[in-house]
Amino acid sequence: MRCSGIVTVSMERLEKGASAWSVAAREDTVAVEEALEVVVVLVDGESVLSHVFMRTPGHDEELVLGWLWSEGIIKFPREVLEIGQIKECHIRVVLSLEHPIQWDRIKRSVVGSSSCGICGTKNLTALRYLPFEPIRGVEWSVDPDILVGGITVLNDEKSLFSKTGGIHGGALMTRKGKVSLIREDVGRHNVVDKLVGWGVEKRRRGEGQWPFELLMVSSRLSFDLVQKCIAAQIPVLIGLGAASSQAVKLSTDYGVTLVGFTKRTKFNVYSHFERIDISG
Fold this sequence. Notes:
8 helices; alpha/beta; globular; 13 strands; 6-stranded mixed beta sheet
């Protein structure tokens, strides 16, 4: 297992010259993608769920906590009694659930790829069912310059991306522009789970309030990212890329302000424009 998020590999570089292609042996730095197996056990010892993530190593417990929260498996941070690595690339979680849960809705295929946050869902009914409340009661708005400045910070801090070109980045930010946390991973949904899991762990330790106001991602805006924002009650989701039709619909229905194609001087607001303050 690689402890770093990057690794050097050998490759052949092809370049087209004036009359022909040339080949040269080179080395390249690529993002690490490795499997992480998670076993979820109830406090009485019953093993209820096993899942394999494809992820970039680092902040693995945050990844698992964020996934448990985003899936609705846990509703309170205190439901996680234990979480830890039992051997290399294996994490065991012990839960004491305080609410009923539909395990058939959650159980999916064995492997969750780094490119898909909802792959393996058993049917369309399970996909459409969200065990979360819409986001309501947000009485603040955010200055457009905060959104643009936040994306600039995210680009500047994406250290693994700058080395590999193959990593997604994400950041939690306050509406005043303070960046609370940055995470990176080969999977865009893994990035969000790591950020949400950080907040879950803070609550488990009794360290302050739920720390979510704005979430920035370097990727496109898909259904699964909006779902994770709803689960974590994050009112504003900002992305560098495009929004999908389902992301727009879900954000509209569940109270998420969805901002896409964010650049230094412009961006698109697809839902809940009332949270953008253009008064100057």
